[in-house]
Amino acid sequence: MNYDIIALDVDGTLLTDAHVLTAETRDAVREAARLGAEIVLCTGRGPMNTIPVLEELGLSGTIITHNGAATIDAASRNVLHQFDMDNAELEKFINFCREGNHHFDVNTAFDLMVLGEIPPNVAAMYSGYKITPMLRDNALPLPSGLVKFTVFGEKEAMDSVELAWDGWTHGLQHIRSGDFFIDVQHPQVSKGDALKQLAMLRGVEPQRVMAIGNYFNDVGMLTFAGLGIAVANSPDGVKSAANALTLSNEENGVAHALHTYAW
C-alpha cells in the first residue's frame, strides 16, 4: 500500500450524480482499507448522512464533515473537533437570503435546521441527499454551535450570490461547494486543514496521504496530500490544483484512481 491515509470526497466523487455507491467503487475502497489504508470521508455533508455512506462501504473510523468544520468519530458519534461560527456575523447572510428569497439552512455538527418552510423543489433536494431537516421557528434566536450555513438555488442564482458576497468584508468565509450550493463557515475551516490535523495526529507525512475530490472545497486537501487527484467532472480550477486526474464519478473514477496509484 502506497498511502496510509486516503481521503475521499463524497458527492460528485465517491458517489454518482444520483448519489449511488457503485459496487466497483465500493470494492476498490474496501480493498484499500484491507491493505492497510485509513479511509477518511472528507465531505461538505454533515455526519448524519455521511455515516451511512461509510457503513455502506463496510467501514468505520473518523470522518471530516461540513468541509472540515466538524471531525467526528463515526462509531461513537463523538465530535472530536469543531469550528463554531459567530452568529452575529451570520445575521448579514441570513438577511441577504431572506431579502433575495434564496433558500438556506443552518447546521450544528449533527443537526440541519431550516428556519421557516421548505418549498417542494428544496424538499426534493434534501430527499436526494437523504437529509431530514429540522424545522425551527425563524422568530427564535439562532442556536449556539453552528458550524455551517448553506444557501441553495439554481446555478445562475448562486453565481449572483457568490459575486455579491465576494465584495463583502466580514468575519466568516464562503466557499462554493457545488454548482447549486455556497457554504458560509468559520474563517479557519477547510478540508485541507482538517486532513492535515488528522495526519499529524496519526503521525503520517503528507507524502503518505492520497486525496480525491471534485470541487473547490476540495482544493485544500488536494494540495495538502502527497497525491491529490481530481475526478474528470471537476471544474478546470480544481483540476489544475491536482497532481493527477482520474475518470469521472459516473465512470468509477475513485476505483480507477485506487487501482492506478494506491497499491
UniProtKB/TrEMBL annotation:
Family matches, as NCBIfam families: Cof-subfamily
Keyword Hydrolase listed: yes
InterPro entries tied to this protein: Cof, HAD-like_sf, HAD_sf
Short name of one Pfam family: Hydrolase_3
Organism lineage string: Bacteria, Bacillati, Bacillota, Bacilli, Bacillales
Origin species: Paenibacillus spongiae
GO molecular function: hydrolase activity
UniProt keyword annotations, A-Z: Hydrolase
Protein name from the UniProt record: Cof-type HAD-IIB family hydrolase
PROSITE patterns xrefs: COF_1
